[in-house]
């Protein structure tokens, strides 16, 4: 009787042990290097996803969306029935992946991972004007008072490295060194314009140095400097950009975001912009200790722009929505 009980215990332990090992996970060389459940890779490269050894495999993918929760269906990848799956940055960017496995009578799915693209998202440009010195005369075109200036910033400077700034539409992309539209000697992520022109940039990403992006002529900004009727004397009304020196916390955040400090009391305007330069949220007269609910935002990087109560100071900070 004792022998039978021992035999039964060994068999039961073996069954439980098999089930306990039916717990697949996805691994890859760059998974988790920046974010735990994301792969950040360049659009000219491949990445190999792997899981543990099982009897059968089926890989699935789901397209990313801004919606929360994601309502896109999980789709079985035809022919993806081996232990490894090769994906690439051109076709598989902004997709979730998971694998379903079987081992004996055990069937299980891995947690999903994401092939992310916002590490080198399409460029966008922020334009900062001085109040009282400009007039918008059409989409992307402004009359500017002589003596004033307009500051242009790459919305996500951490993504891009060396920039090529233009004062007119370039003749070729990638730009040629002798293109007269190139602003000589300017390679940073911002430029301050003081003369008429059509401004934009071309830049290469830091994470993927061989991957470069053009702002696109539709996103260029045209400035016409002159002595316009609306022009006022320049002086104390100029907005001063303070950079990333405003406290933003917690960062990363899941639901609530706080900005600023008690001495500021109120911010005249707070805007959140996504990786494409699209305005996601805007608040007026925001108190420093009021939470900003960002729970509905999709996970990723965002820019938050805050203006002081008198409108003279502007703060630009980046935060991560988990």
UniProtKB/TrEMBL annotation:
<dbReference type="Pfam" id="PF18962">
    <property type="entry name" value="Por_Secre_tail"/>
</dbReference>
<keyword id="KW-0732">Signal</keyword>
<protein>
    <submittedName>
        <fullName>Secretion protein</fullName>
    </submittedName>
</protein>
<feature type="signal peptide">
    <location>
        <begin position="1"/>
        <end position="20"/>
    </location>
</feature>
<feature type="domain" description="Secretion system C-terminal sorting">
    <location>
        <begin position="248"/>
        <end position="314"/>
    </location>
</feature>
<dbReference type="InterPro" id="IPR026444">
    <property type="entry name" value="Secre_tail"/>
</dbReference>
């Amino acid at each position: 009787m004792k022998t039978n009980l021992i035999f039964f215990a060994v068999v039961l332990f073996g069954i439980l042990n098999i089930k306990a090992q039916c717990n697949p996970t996805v691994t890859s060389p760059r998974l988790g290097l920046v974010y735990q459940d994301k792969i950040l890779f360049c659009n000219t490269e491949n990445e190999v996803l792997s899981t543990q050894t099982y009897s059968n495999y089926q890989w699935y993918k789901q397209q990313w969306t801004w919606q929360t929760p994601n309502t896109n269906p999980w789709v079985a990848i035809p022919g993806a029935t081996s232990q490894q799956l090769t994906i690439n940055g051109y076709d598989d960017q902004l997709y979730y992946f998971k694998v379903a496995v079987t081992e004996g009578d055990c069937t299980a799915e891995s947690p999903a991972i994401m092939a992310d693209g916002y590490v080198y998202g399409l460029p966008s440009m922020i334009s900062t004007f001085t109040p009282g010195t400009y007039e918008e005369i059409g989409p992307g075109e402004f009359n500017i008072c002589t003596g004033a200036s307009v500051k242009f910033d790459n919305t996500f400077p951490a993504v891009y490295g060396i920039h090529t700034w233009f004062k007119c539409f370039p003749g070729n992309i990638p730009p040629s060194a002798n293109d007269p539209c190139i602003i000589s000697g300017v390679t940073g992520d911002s430029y301050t314009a003081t003369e008429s022109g059509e401004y934009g940039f071309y830049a290469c990403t830091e994470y993927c140095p061989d991957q470069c992006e053009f702002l696109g002529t539709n996103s260029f900004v045209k400035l016409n400097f002159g002595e316009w009727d609306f022009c006022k004397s320049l002086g104390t009304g100029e907005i001063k950009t303070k950079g990333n020196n405003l406290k933003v916390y917690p960062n990363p955040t899941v639901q609530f975001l706080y900005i600023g400090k008690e001495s500021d009391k109120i911010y005249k305007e707070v805007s959140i912009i996504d990786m494409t330069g699209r305005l996601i949220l805007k608040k007026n007269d925001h108190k420093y200790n009021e939470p900003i609910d960002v729970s509905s935002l999709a996970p990723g990087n965002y820019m938050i722009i805050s203006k002081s109560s008198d409108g003279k100071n502007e703060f630009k900070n980046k935060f991560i929505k988990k």
